Amino acid sequence: MAEVLVYVDHVDGAVRKPTLELLTLARRVGEPVAVALGAGAGDTAAALAEHGAVKVLTHEAAEYADYLVVPKVDALQAAVAAVSPAAVLVPSSAEGKEIAARLALRLGSGIITDAVDLEAGDEGPVATQSVFAAAFTTKSRVSKGTPVITVKPNSAAVEAAPAAGAVEALSVTFSAAATGTKVTSRTPRESTGRPELTEAAIVVSGGRGVNGAENFAIIEALADSLGAAVGASRAAVDAGWYPHTNQVGQTGKSVSPQLYIASGISGAIQHRAGMQTSKTIVAINKDAEAPIFELVDYGVVGDLFDVVPQLTEEVKSRKG
Amino acid sequence: MSLRIVVTVKYVPDATGDRHFADDLTVDRDDVDGLLSELDEYAVEQALQISENSDDDVEVTVLTVGPEDAKDALRKALSMGADKAIHVEDDDLHGTDAIGTSLVLAKAVEKAGYDLVVSGMASTDGTMGVVPALLAERLGVPQVTLLSEVSVEGGVVKGRRDGDAATEQLQASLPAVVSVTDQSGEARYPSFKGIMAAKKKPVQSWDLSDLDIDEDEVGLENAYTVVESAAERPARSAGTIVKDEGEGGKQLAEFLAGQKFI
Ligand SMILES: Cc1cc2nc3c(=O)[nH]c(=O)nc-3n(C[C@H](O)[C@H](O)[C@H](O)COP(=O)(O)OP(=O)(O)OC[C@H]3O[C@@H](n4cnc5c(N)ncnc54)[C@H](O)[C@@H]3O)c2cc1C
Ligand SMILES: Nc1ncnc2c1ncn2[C@@H]1O[C@H](COP(=O)(O)O)[C@@H](O)[C@H]1O
């Protein structure tokens, strides 16, 4: 069976969930061979083997952290040369898309970004995408070269599928371009203790209706009662009430959780673009005409300052 | 010293319009009003600020690859304050994908002459966010992308990139390709004076032969990807909507429990 390269997103060896989802999709198309780069690359092997990687190609070098994007492209290109895969799958983060694009160009291949599903097809993998703020669903495939496809988080279930996961050192020669853009400092984001926004099963978001940074405490309290991540509309972010990293929408994060709860959010097209593929959508808004209600499975027309705290209490008491 | 900045701007269908696909599964650009992609306004703004903050002699050129109407996008950028514009237009460009677009942009940028390319973070129609990286790869210059802050001094571009896991400070020597996010600062509105001045600013038109690009390198037929189908997402079945009469939170909890979320 053909091999499929999977680019591993990890933090010091801890594999992030979207990569494990990629392994599920990769197995539909071929045998997953993972590529893990940078500090801790070797530590990823156990988790990757557990989820279906037959091989884990690793390479550690300071360049991956010290320079932007290009060293990772060099490494993936080396991996493609070593393996001749049927496809290359990359998690759809901002960086992942840039890596994938440059790789595709070097390979003379086409690129598909932000796939939400992937199936094997007669002429290569067929990717499902959700476009125009999720108003349309398209199916596409790469028609030239080795398909390079980036896949959004929450596009597949994480499945256990034990495989050999044999670690092999990848040999990489960095290109002249590799050191072009220096990372002069890096400040890791502080952990909030809550789930990662793009990976969470439940997302609780607040918008302009939350009316102040201090009031986000009631959104956080609901999120914590449900074990959810916290999101925000751009209006709330622009007002300085919540960090931009938590913004949901076209220019923020795109989320696709099992449950999305929007409070005080009108549902503008750019916000919908980032949450419309959520499985179940719930909204609380005092304006019965708010467009968000067109999307909901359950909506409460009311003041979020009454409804949200009552909901939080009820969740807590039901969970005991 | 002089600094030549080229800003790549895309003309896109209005996101608040009824966007859909044409019969050949390309984005329908006829039925929905087009405009300068809002995310490229931020690129124009940052280019103008770099120009205003510089002691050098700076020239800001806006560049678009697109149909006849894409001139509107150039006009808007010129009225914001860009100095001149280049419009790459050719019937053979219809249906060109990101890989092809980056080729056309690269050739045009090289022909125009540049020290710095400034792009938006993503187009509001395709939303791929890959063209700046592709452009850097093709030009063989550093990519300094997705910046929420950018500055140029002494032949060096610096910027802040707010990534998923960390905030990074980046630095590269010119020439370089930069892209900026919508966190980089509100774009200015064209002033009346700016709008009047824009009418007199030069707009050059180039076609594929001007760029030495073969017709079989671009266009729908030669794209590296094929869209096999496009289906309108079925409308979500109407949900239950209740008015809060004092029990709204409890009713919602009941719903969530029924769905096994609690
Ligand atoms: C290029 C571009 C990119 C963009 N990207 C994004 C993006 O990534 N994410 C994003 O979210 N937006 C984005 N936007 C902005 C988007 O167009 C909207 O302006 C924004 O989503 C509005 O946020 P909101 O719903 O919180 O605010 P509003 O539209 O002002 O809605 C607030 C809602 O709260 C309700 N409300 C007020 N008080 C209460 C209360 N006490 N109880 C209950 N309900 C209450 C109101 O009825 C109203 O419906 C983008 C715009 C552009 C042009
Ligand atoms: N046809 C085009 N003409 C000019 N610039 C473009 C074009 N397509 C993309 N760009 C630039 O590339 C950026 C990212 O686009 P994309 O990769 O398509 O999301 C945009 O914000 C523009 O700056």
Tell me about this structure:
Chain A: The electron transfer flavoprotein serves as a specific electron acceptor for other dehydrogenases. It transfers the electrons to the main respiratory chain via ETF-ubiquinone oxidoreductase (ETF dehydrogenase). Chain A: It comes from Streptomyces hyderabadensis. Chain A: This is Electron transfer flavoprotein subunit alpha/FixB family protein. Chain A: Residues 4-183 form the Electron transfer flavoprotein alpha/beta-subunit N-terminal domain. Chain A: Belongs to the ETF alpha-subunit/FixB family. The complex is a heterodimer of chains A (320) and B (262). With 320 residues, chain A is of the alpha/beta class. Chain A has helices at 17-29, 45-50, 63-66, 70-83, 94-107, 216-226, 234-238, 269-272, 304-319, and strands spanning 3-7, 10-11, 14-15, 31-37, 55-59, 87-91, 111-119, 126-131, 136-142, 148-151, 166-169, 182-188, 202-206, 229-232, 259-263, 280-285, 298-301. Chain A has a 9-stranded mixed beta sheet with strand order 9-8-7-10-6-1-4-5-11. In chain A, helix 4 packs across helix 5 and helix 6 (216-226) runs parallel beside helix 9 (304-319). The mean pLDDT of chain A is 96. By secondary structure, chain B is α/β, with parallel strands linked by helices. Chain B contains 6 helices and 13 strands. In chain B, strand 7 (143-153) and strand 8 (156-162) form a beta hairpin. The model of chain B has no long low-confidence stretch (mean pLDDT 95). The chains are: A alpha/beta (320), B alpha/beta (262). At the A-B interface, helix 5, strand 7, strand 8, strand 9 and strand 12 of A face helix 3, helix 4, strand 7, strand 8 and strand 9 of B. The structure holds flavin-adenine dinucleotide and adenosine monophosphate. Adenosine monophosphate is lined by residues 8-10, 37, 39-40, 43, 63-66, 98, 101, 105, 119-120, 122-123, 126-132 of chain B. Flavin-adenine dinucleotide sits between chains A (207-209, 233-236, 247-252, 264-266, 268, 270-271, 274, 284-287, 290, 303-305) and B (38-39, 124, 182).
